Amino acid sequence: MDFTVKKYELLLNSMRDAGYSFQTYEEFLRNPKEKVVILRHDVDLKPGNSLLFAEIQNNLGIKGVYYFRAVAASWDESIILKINKMGHEIGYHYENLTVTKGNIDLAIEDFKRNLSKLRKLVPVNTICMHGSPLSRYDNKKLWQKYDYQSFGILGEPYFDTNYSSVYYLTDTGRTWDNKGVSVRDKVISSFDLKFSKTDQIISSFQGNRMPSVIMFTFHPQRWSNEPFEWLIELVSQKIKNVIKKILISIRSK
After folding, report:
1. Strands 213-218 and 36-43, bridge-based pairing
2. Can you give the pTM of this predicted structure?
3. How many domains does the chain divide into?
4. Given CA atoms 16, 176, 23, 119 in this order, what sign does their dihedral have?
């Protein structure tokens, strides 16, 4: 079975055993290491799953970054504080154009309000867009008019990462081979590496065949050791992937 918490732990251990360091996204932007993994987590749903991931990493002496949405399904202040206390980075997973139905001026006010609210809990120095695949609005376009750096933001992964030298892997669509089901979680990469299973990634780490700088994006709600929860996620994601394929096809015309 893939996309279990046990498989996630095996993946982390394969990275560590291969000699990789781990940095938060802020740390990487400020002082990037030569052989490093950035563990990014988009907390779209089930923040308790993200807390579990953070605890697993903490037990291994590993740090990552966790991006929280400003919605009830993601925003859990006690969990945000617990994850931050472990030394992980907290960031804002913004979706303001989706929320305001494309009104860019209302969107920036929504952004400022949510960023301020999160900063009252923990330091926030990086942000990351939420893909909102069913929405017609691309949340990254907020920055066509405004500048996130004016809010004291150091970086945003889709704008401030050089993917010609950083290999990017994401579990979007509950698959690693997600080109056909990813609406907006896409980057232009110079790496010609493809994986369909987590075991293949683990094997590549064990064989020292992975690039020296890697960013992973995880959606912790997709990973579970509970058979029923695992099956529900599998079936629901397959349905979502069909819908996303249709949307990608329609929007490309």
Report:
1. parallel
2. 0.93
3. 1
4. negative
**In contact, 244 and 17? CB cutoff 8 Å:** no
> What amino acid occupies position 175?
T
Q: Which domain holds residue 31?
A: 5-251
- Residue 19 burial (C-beta neighbours within 10 Å; 0-12, 13-18, 19+): exposed
Residue type for position 45: L
Using DSSP, state whether 192 is helix, strand or coil.
Answer: coil
Contact 232, 222 (CB under 8 A): no
Tens-digit pLDDT profile for residues 116-133: 999 999 999 999 999 887
Q: Give the residue from 136, 67, 137 showing the smallest Cα distance to 96.
A: 137
* The pair of three-digit structure tokens given for residue 101, joined into one six-digit string: 């139905």
Identify the three-state secondary structure at position 127: strand
CATH classification at residue 27: 3.20.20.370
Strand partners, 76: none
Q: Render pLDDT for 24-45 as a digit per residue (tens, 0 to 9).
A: 999 999 999 999 999 999 999 9
